[in-house]
Amino acid sequence: MDMDWVRGEKLGHGSFATVNLGVPRSQSSQFPPLMAVKSCGISHSCSLMNEKLILDDLKACPQIIRCFGGSFSCENGERLYNLLLEYAPGGTLADKVKNSDDQRLPESEVRGYTKALLRGLHYIHKFGYVHCDLKLQNILLFPNDGVKIADFGLSKRTGNGISPGCEFRGTPMYMSPETVTGGEQGAPADVWALGCVVAEMVTGKPVWRCSNLAAVLMRIGVGEEVPAIPGILSEEGKDFLGKCFVKDPSCRWTAEMLLNHPFVRDVENFDDVADSLKGRQESKTTVSPSPRCPFDFPDWESPAACSVTSLPAPEYSPQPALPFSNLTPPTTLEWLGELMTHQSPDWSVSGDWITIR
Asked: Annotated catalytic, 133?
């Protein structure tokens, strides 16, 4: 099905992609009146195409962002690939933590968000995928405290051990020991990242507080140190994080196991929220009527009209965040050496992603 749409105001941009509001030129029951359009040049489109293919597989899960299709466009002389995504009126979980009192969330909210994230992760892992970049900035907020996992550009099929070419994906601050020391990124790595997310919601600060990337990687990958468990958490919360922060991935609890942990098992009213979100998806009702953007004014529109088209389904592989040139698996010291000499931003903040509201 084809649909013309118009690009609206910019929401944010990263190193190679931008996110704009998007509105269909003619309303349809198949699409909402407001979307988030993630765009990049054709030369960098591999990650977005990979994201579309994965989201198509995971579209039935209420805790995962919806994708409405992909399209190509030519704007201002540049050929772009565009991914049409569900718009999150509440912003990111990182925004909420930053803007909350004391820049941290009460445990009651943390429990609800954690249970939702576990449901999403369990679904992702059940279908044979690994997210590879779970963090506060990639968790979006919806009405009634609903949360959805987003940004699957670095996600991959569950593999056996190290990826070909020793690909290194994700944000170092949230990486598991097995990822740092050997590039192993399976479902347990997502659970470790979830633990980092939970601790950060509670304290408002990253679990690793180091001045540079090398120091972070050494603390994660070398020795027996694990992130500090916040003392303000309940005993159930401390035990929950203890199950996430297990050095040996084979002994780390799975998302399915954690769903039965007392920290989240009896969260009140969450099932009603999840069912409500699922019902809104199935009925395809409209999103929030207050999108916080000036649609009644003509100057926000770009002249570009884009058409959603069906994409072929080849096996796209995302561009790794930090590629390694060796074709054989490196030793732990070689791996850490490569990572420490790589020029990277300060991963403790999301400075490379600029949000515009």
From this structure: yes
